[in-house]
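Board notes, transcribed. Complex of a protein with S-Hydroxy-Glutathione.
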Amino acid sequence: MADEVILLDFWPSLFGMRCRIALAEKGVKYEYKEEDLRNKSDLLLRMNPIHKKIPVLVHNGKPVCESLIILHYIDEAWSDKCPLLPSDPYQRAQARFWADYIDKKFYDLGKKLWTTKGEEQEAAKKELIDSLKLLEGELGDKPFYGGEKLGFLDIAFVPFYTWFYAYETCGNFSIEAECPKLIAWTKRCLEIENVSKSLIEPQKVYDLVLRLKKSLGIE
Ligand code: GS8
């Protein structure tokens, strides 16, 4: 029997984009189901009753939640093609460490950049730039975090690129001026079709941010 694979997702989600790239890299055919997060489907509530969040990967009726856990699962369940995590245990631990760092730092900092002003926004901007510089240092002179090819950490990190334009415009700064090597890496990632077709246009994210700001009464 063929595998039944469903991805419950929401188009601007950084976490959903990770799963889309990994599934594309593995060549897994799946059904994409867009969720309305203000009116969550019964399927989402049944498949992720703990957090009630997307993304959820439903593989032959069984749900896997949390994007980084989904990436691991995809790597293990479709292990015959295109390994995502490094084979060396130490390198695997490093990739997991930085993916965890990204999740602990960027989502909240990014949100602060477009929801605050003045000193609070400046502090978020500085912290974001410092963190991006750390990640740029971790890349070093390698083409990808995965070495010569796209890997787990590349997939965990590159969706944030789609939000960079919104962060830069709201915070009035240039990530390229601060971290040129990091932006060169995003460009290399985007040359890979499985990446570019899984990400959404930065302008669409910015338009969404403007709508969210309006609905939240900011500015
Ligand atoms: C985060 C998922 C998440 O925040 C992961 O999968 O890595 N740690 C999780 N999902 C959001 C949409 S993306 O911003 C979500 O589903 N929110 C709905 C809600 O909070 O009700």
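Residues 10, 13, 15, 37, 52-55, 66-68 surround S-Hydroxy-Glutathione (CB under 6 Å). The chain has a mean pLDDT of 96.
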